[in-house]
Design a protein that fits this description.
- About 30% of the residues lie in helices and about 20% in strands.
- It has 16 helices and 23 strands.
- The strands form five sheets. It has an eight-stranded mixed β-sheet with strand order 5-4-3-6-2-1-7-8.
- The structure holds adenosine-5'-diphosphate and magnesium ion (MG).
């Protein structure tokens, strides 16, 4: 008996809908993508009850003829690709020809459309219920297309039950629209929720120049998130050569055998050092304007931030990767959410390098702003608590000081909670009022040029700075550029400083850790042996077999970092020297702690011998400056050393070293302004 039969069209559509249309936000996504593909300059999205009862998307795009209006509802009907080869280089949002029939099969659906370029003032309206065409008629309509989707999943009660609350579904819709609006600043977006206008974003001029593009994106970010002044701009171009990808041999091998010289550009904004969030929510990544998820890119971001990010925190960014469509596969996910790169490894390395160089450049630009000529003699700090404010303290050198984005805000009352190192409440979600111009210090414009450093080992990837963008598109407030005056130290840890802009706090331990860390790495880079101080009384440390084995693996790096440990038996080690900044009163405990910390860190990196960075970070944690009273000269040196760091704003673990509270924020706290 034959048991196999072809499914009716309607059932096939509902099955496709199961993949493509997960929730109301998927409908909004597909419809808005169609509008964007239709060349719309204005898109209005209206929803009711979280999109459950109504989703209406109206555009002023090319529209459709009567025939097309009927054809577009057929499965696999598309105007975007013709041949299978076209799949290899997709430059539209859609291409599967599945969205409209899928949506129409699970809702009450009305399509109204009129061709933009036709003479006729008449449009076409198609009314469909659960996939069945009820009516096709002539209808009055403005040029463009409106799709109305009511009662989503009305004929699939099981799916309807899975929908979350109205708020949740609206939030998903709003999230997608945010991405679309960021990806297309040249398009005007209006978003209406239950009759209320949520956004009305005007179309922005983007042009082709990097400056105009950055400026438009910045403007969009500002209107969507309120503030963008903690962002720095990124603009890098790279030539990727797919053949250099060491990933060859993987399933993508076939793909990679073709040599592709793919130019890649990465531009947009990233959070300044110290800016992060506890989720990936404000991490917006686009590949050829398509918002995407890609593990490699996520990883590249974390790699790029490296020590500028606390564990468990995520970067804040809005980044656009522009790459030859042939070098990226978008046809790997039904909702086109994920992409795969032809040379995944190269893309990842290039992105990580672009981020790292941008972050380094953020600090180095102030160095480059220093006057040319002999370095100014640093003037000593002065700390005379009894002196009158006006006379107190000399500027800390004539040169520039450790930079910090001016609007970085500490948690509510940092002075009251000195012991907690709470993450900074950063991200797009925060809406601090803009700093009035009179309080802003003029500084060098932010340009994304990386500072010149020895090229990183980035196999086959060359990064060059892209066209410089000007400061108006540049993102974060220029670096702290003003003299600092020492006020004192509180909690034996926080150095209180005063600038012309307000209050600056320095975590002396975090700062010291950063300084030591970079010094150690530089020594390692130059193959130098770190300073080490012999212990008066060498101590033996006995360990469990496993710990002993683990420690043995790390011995070479530890000893280069100045920790003098040697094997003294099967499970016994002799500790006879320590880096000078580690004053372990109980050397044995120090060794055990280091092992525990390294083991914990090792679980993350999953390798037996830990990288030098990891070991250096761990050793620095034991720097003892935390509660040590420092003399003025020591403080002065600490700040001077910090200024010479590549990444002065965070400790090697990503915690901030400096926090600034400007007068504007102080005024607000004291109720002097609204
Ligand atoms: P795809 O976008 O993958 O081609 P869809 O089912 O989303 O598939 O749309 C089918 C076709 O209908 C599109 O290729 C396009 O030609 C047409 N279309 C859909 N929406 C619009 C719109 N808003 N304006 C103009 N044409 C549209
Ligand atoms: Mg589509």
């Amino acid at each position: 008996m034959n048991r196999i039969r072809l499914l009716p069209e309607q059932v096939a559509n509902q099955i496709a809908a199961g993949e493509v249309i997960e929730r109301p936000a998927s409908v909004v996504k597909e419809l808005v993508e169609n509008s964007l593909d239709a060349g719309a300059t204005r898109i209005v999205v209206e929803i009711q009850a979280g999109g459950r009862s109504l989703i209406r998307v109206t555009d002023d795009g090319v529209g459709m003829s009567r025939d097309d209006a009927l054809l577009c509802l057929e499965r696999h009907a598309t105007s975007k690709i013709v041949r299978a080869e076209d799949l290899a280089a997709i430059d539209t949002m859609g291409f599967r020809g599945e969205a409209l029939p899928s949506i129409a099969s699970v809702s009450r659906f009305i399509l109204t459309t009129r061709e933009r370029d036709s003479e006729s003032p008449e449009g076409t309206q198609v009314v469909i219920g659960g996939g069945k065409i009820h009516e096709v008629k002539v209808a009055a309509s403005a040029p463009g297309t409106t799709v109305e989707v009511r009662q989503l999943f009305f004929n699939l009660p099981a799916r309807r039950k899975f929908l979350r609350t109205e708020e949740t579904e609206s939030a998903h819709i709003q999230h997608y629209l945010t991405l679309a609006a960021l990806g297309f600043p040249q398009v005007a977006f209006t978003f209406l929720k239950d009759g209320r206008t949520v956004w009305q974003l005007p179309a922005l001029k983007t042009g082709t120049g990097a400056t105009a593009k950055h400026a438009a994106l910045r403007e969009r970010l500002r209107s969507l998130h309120g503030s963008d002044d903690k962002m720095i701009s990124v603009d890098f171009s790279v030539d990727l050569n797919a053949q250099t990808d060491p990933g060859a041999g993987s399933p993508e091998e076939e793909w990679q055998t073709q040599a592709v010289e793919a130019p890649m550009r990465l531009w947009g904004f990233i959070g300044a050092p110290g800016v992060s969030r506890s989720t990936r929510e404000d991490q917006h990544l686009f590949v050829n304007r398509r918002p995407v998820e890609n593990r490699g890119l996520n990883f590249a971001l974390l790699e790029g931030y490296h020590t500028s990010l606390m564990k468990g925190r995520y970067p804040v960014c809005c980044l656009f990767l522009e790459i030859d469509p042939a070098a990226v596969d978008v046809n790997i996910h039904p909702a086109k959410r994920e992409v795969r790169f032809r040379s995944e490894g190269d893309v990842r390395r290039a992105v990580a390098k672009a981020i790292r160089d941008t972050l380094l450049g953020f600090h180095s630009q102030e160095s480059s702003a220093r006057p040319v000529g002999p370095a100014p003699v640093p003037q000593p700090f002065q700390a005379h608590p009894n002196e009158k404010p006006a006379g107190r303290g000399l500027p800390l050198g004539q040169s520039v000081l450790p930079a910090f984005p001016a609007n970085l805000k500490p948690l509510a009352t940092p002075l009251a909670t000195p012991a907690t190192q709470a993450p900074l409440p950063m991200g797009f979600g925060v809406h601090p009022p803009p700093t009035p111009s009179h309080l802003q210090t003029a500084g060098p414009s932010i340009s994304p040029n990386p500072i010149s450093r020895p090229p990183a080992a980035a196999g086959g990837v060359q990064t060059q700075p892209g066209a410089a963008t000007n400061s108006s598109a540049g993102g974060a407030v220029p670096l702290l550029h003003v003299p600092l005056r020492l006020i004192g130290v509180i909690g034996r840890l926080y150095v209180v400083l005063e600038s012309d802009r307000g209050l600056v706090l320095l975590d002396q331990h975090a700062a010291h850790e950063r300084v030591l860390f970079e010094q150690m790495l530089k020594r390692l880079e130059h193959k130098e042996q770190a300073d080490s101080q012999k212990l008066l009384l060498p101590e033996t440390v006995e360990l469990s077999a496993r710990d002993a084995h683990f420690l043995r693996e790390q011995l070479p790096v530890l000893s280069r970092l100045g920790v003098g440990l040697s094997e003294f038996g099967e499970r016994t080690f002799l500790l006879d020297a320590l880096p000078p900044f580690v004053k372990a009163s109980e050397p044995r405990r120090f060794v055990v702690q280091i092992i525990d910390e390294l083991k914990a860190a090792g679980q993350e990196v999953n390798s037996l011998r830990l990288g030098e960075h990891m070991v250096a970070k761990t050793v620095c944690r034991h720097a003892v400056k935390a509660n040590d009273p420092l003399s003025d000269t020591e403080l002065e040196n600490l700040i001077k050393d910090l200024r010479h760091c590549d990444m002065p704003y965070t400790c090697p673990h990503g915690r901030p070293t400096l926090v600034e509270m400007n007068f504007r924020e102080l005024e607000k706290k004291f109720g002097r302004t609204q």
